[in-house]
Amino acid sequence: MSVLGLGTVKLGRNVGVKYPTGADGRPVPLPSDEQAVAVLSAAVDLGVTLIDTAPAYGKSESRLGELMTENRWFGGRDRWVVCTKAGEEFDSERAMSRFDFSAEGVTASVERSLRRLRIDTIDVVLLHSDGRDEWILRESGGVDALERLCLRGLVRAIGISVKSPAGWRAANQRLASTKAGAVMVEFDPALDEHRALAAESWALGLGVLVKKGLASGHAPNPAASIRGIVAEEHVSSLIVGTTNAQHLVLNAKSAAGRRGRKRGGGGGS
Ligand code: NAP
């Protein structure tokens, strides 16, 4: 899995997001197919293998499935680590999310993601927390459903995208016994608490995927933000969202040169 991952919120959703808007304050239009293909091609050229999507990102999963299939997955399905989520749906007409972390809801969501992405197995599925991290992990039945999907061979690794340090701690506990697990987190290298939790995840064999490293496009110095996060020993990958191939080139440069990991990760981008 590459140290730099490609986030695809903006491929499918432009309302109810925190990204900078156009000069007139209106949502930035979704990227064209040509623009999206340019980003995916750049990802291949730069050695980016991790790609992150979700049902909550509007058309992201279905556009990825279509563009990837049309382009034969740019060199093959097996070169990608595809990460998606379950538990959150975005209703674009009402500009509101709905949440369902029940075993039935999570199973149906993953089966639909497989159809939308047009693949047989998803590499990583994360529960897309709405903030109730601990309840989701311990009581919703969602993690049990993901474990059963692994046994059915439909999913390779499972986990949760959390919203708080307490949720991250609970995820480490709940996922410690899974065969292949990961947490998606916001990570600030200046915070000892984040660094300790990442070390704990790492020691338990869990992947640590960092989201929103550029503060959803508001980071004053993107290169420095990327360098600071990927330098962390216990971060597996930083997922940066972009619809701009030139930004991806710059981001890959910033992520390059990271020293070798004890396991997973790999160097360069
Ligand atoms: P982010 O990665 O912090 O920021 C993305 C924004 O930064 C985009 O607006 C992008 O605009 C801009 N950008 C990227 N590279 C840039 C560069 N070199 N120079 C200037 N601007 C740059 O925020 P995010 O997209 O919200 O989060 C990253 C990914 O994490 C998402 O795509 C998603 O896959 C995942 N995520 C997960 C959750 C969750 O709850 N699980 C929540 C949020 C995000 P351009 O398109 O113009 O490059």
Walk me through this protein's architecture:
The chain is an alpha/beta fold and 269 residues long. The chain is built from ten helices and ten strands. Strands 1-2-3-6-7-8-9-10 form an eight-stranded parallel beta barrel, surrounded by seven helices. α2 packs parallel to α10, α5 (133-139) packs parallel to α7 and α7 (165-175) packs parallel to α8 (192-203). NADP nicotinamide-adenine-dinucleotide phosphate is lined by residues 7-10, 19, 52, 85, 128, 161, 184, 211-217, 222, 239-244, 247, 250-251.
Taking pLDDT < 50 over at least 5 consecutive residues as the criterion, the unreliable ranges are 264-269
In N-to-C order, the SSE pattern is: EHHEHEEEHEHHEHEHEHEH
**Which small molecules are bound?**
NADP nicotinamide-adenine-dinucleotide phosphate
Task: Tell me the number of helical segments per DSSP (H or I, 4 or more residues long).
Answer: 10
**Strand order within the widest sheet?**
1-2-3-6-7-8-9-10
- Give the biggest sheet: 8 strands, parallel, barrel
* Total beta-strand segments: 10
Which of globular, elongated, flat, extended, rod-shaped describes the shape? globular
Mind telling me the C-alpha Rg? Answer: 17 Å
Distance between the amino and carboxyl termini: 9 Å
**Residues in helices, as a percent range:** 25-40%
